[in-house]
C-alpha cells in the first residue's frame, strides 16, 4: 500500500480493543477469567488474539496447563500495548471531559499492599492521571479505627466470614519458615506474629492451643517487613497470607505437623456517610479488578 507520494505505508493497524484484550489476558494469565472481566466470550477473545498474531506475524501467547504466558514476541508487544492504551485512554478522558480529578485516602493492610496495590492503583491512575491517592497501611483493626474517625475514605480489610456477599476474594493464612533453619520441630515453637488483635495472631494461637502444642512468642509487630525479617533470620516461624510469602522463605507443608489455619475474606469498608463520586469510582474499580489479580 502506498501513500500519495508513492511511499510504502503500513498495511495493518493495531486495534485498541484487541490490544486491551491482549493486555488483560497477559495480566490475568487465563482466557476464561479475562473473558469474564472484559464481558466477552472466550471464543471472541481467541479470535481477537488470532487476528493480532496474524497481523504481527508472530505467536504472542503460550497456552499450557499452567495458564497463558507471553512468548518472546508477546513480551516485546506488551510494552508497546500498554503505552498505546495509556496514551489513548488519557487522550479520550481529557477530550471527552470524563477524566476524574481530586484526591482520596485509601487504607490497606501491608500484605495486601504488596500483593494487590501495584495493579489496583496503577491501572486507576493510568485512566485518571489527575487523581491523587494517599495510601495508609495498617492492620484491619487499625484501618477500621481510621474509618470511624474519617481519617481515610475507604480501605481493603479482612473478614473472618469468607461467605459474606461483599467478599471480593479470599486469601489463605499459611505457616512460613526459613528453609535452612527447620525450627518448626522445636518445642516450645518460636513464633513471630502480628499484633494481638489481628486475625492471623489469634488464628495461630487458637490453633496451637487446640493442638496443645507448646509455643513462645519471640516477636510481635504490625510490620510485615519485620515479620519477614525475623523469619529470614531463622529465629521464628510466622503466619502470613499466602499471597505475601516471598520466594526466599518457605510455606510449611502439612508434614511440619502444624495445625490448619483459616481462610480470610477481603472486602471494602468505607468511612461513614462517604458518597464522594471519586471514592465510589475507585471502589467500583477495585470490585472489578481485585477478584482477577493473580
From TrEMBL:
The keyword Transcription applies. Pfam families: HTH_1, LysR_substrate. Residues 14-71 form the HTH lysR-type domain. Keywords: DNA-binding, Transcription, Transcription regulation. Gene3D superfamilies: Periplasmic binding protein-like II, Winged helix-like DNA-binding domain superfamily/Winged helix DNA-binding domain. One of its GO terms (molecular function) is DNA-binding transcription factor activity. The keyword Transport does not apply. Belongs to the LysR transcriptional regulatory family. This is LysR family transcriptional regulator. It comes from Acetobacter syzygii.
Amino acid at each position: 500500500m502506498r501513500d500519495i507520494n508513492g511511499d510504502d505505508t503500513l498495511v495493518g493497524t493495531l486495534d485498541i480493543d484487541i490490544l486491551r484484550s491482549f493486555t488483560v489476558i497477559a495480566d490475568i494469565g487465563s482466557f476464561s477469567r479475562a473473558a469474564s472481566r472484559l464481558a466477552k466470550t472466550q471464543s471472541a477473545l481467541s479470535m481477537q488474539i488470532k487476528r493480532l498474531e496474524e497481523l504481527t506475524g508472530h505467536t504472542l501467547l503460550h497456552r499450557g496447563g499452567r495458564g497463558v504466558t507471553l512468548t518472546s514476541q508477546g513480551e516485546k508487544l506488551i510494552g508497546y500495548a500498554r503505552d498505546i492504551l495509556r496514551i489513548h485512554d488519557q487522550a479520550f478522558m481529557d477530550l471527552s471531559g470524563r477524566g476524574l480529578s481530586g484526591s482520596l485516602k485509601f487504607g490497606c493492610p501491608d500484605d495486601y499492599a504488596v500483593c494487590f496495590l501495584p495493579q489496583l492503583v496503577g491501572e486507576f491512575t493510568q485512566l485518571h492521571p489527575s487523581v491523587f491517592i494517599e495510601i495508609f497501611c495498617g492492620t484491619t483493626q487499625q484501618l477500621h479505627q481510621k474509618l470511624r474517625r474519617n481519617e481515610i475514605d475507604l480501605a481493603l480489610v479482612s473478614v473472618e466470614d469468607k461467605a459474606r456477599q461483599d467478599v471480593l476474594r479470599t486469601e489463605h493464612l499459611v505457616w512460613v519458615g526459613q528453609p535452612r533453619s527447620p525450627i518448626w520441630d522445636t518445642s516450645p515453637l518460636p513464633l513471630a506474629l502480628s499484633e494481638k488483635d489481628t486475625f492471623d495472631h489469634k488464628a495461630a494461637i487458637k490453633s496451637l492451643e487446640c493442638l496443645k502444642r507448646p509455643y513462645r512468642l519471640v516477636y510481635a509487630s504490625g510490620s510485615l517487613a519485620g515479620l519477614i525479617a525475623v523469619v529470614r533470620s531463622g529465629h521464628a516461624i510466622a503466619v502470613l497470607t499466602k499471597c505475601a510469602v516471598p520466594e526466599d522463605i518457605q510455606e510449611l507443608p502439612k508434614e511440619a505437623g502444624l495445625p490448619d489455619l483459616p481462610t480470610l475474606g477481603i472486602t471494602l469498608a468505607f468511612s461513614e456517610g462517604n458518597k464522594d463520586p471519586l471514592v465510589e469510582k475507585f471502589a467500583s474499580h477495585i470490585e472489578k479488578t481485585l477478584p482477577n489479580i493473580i
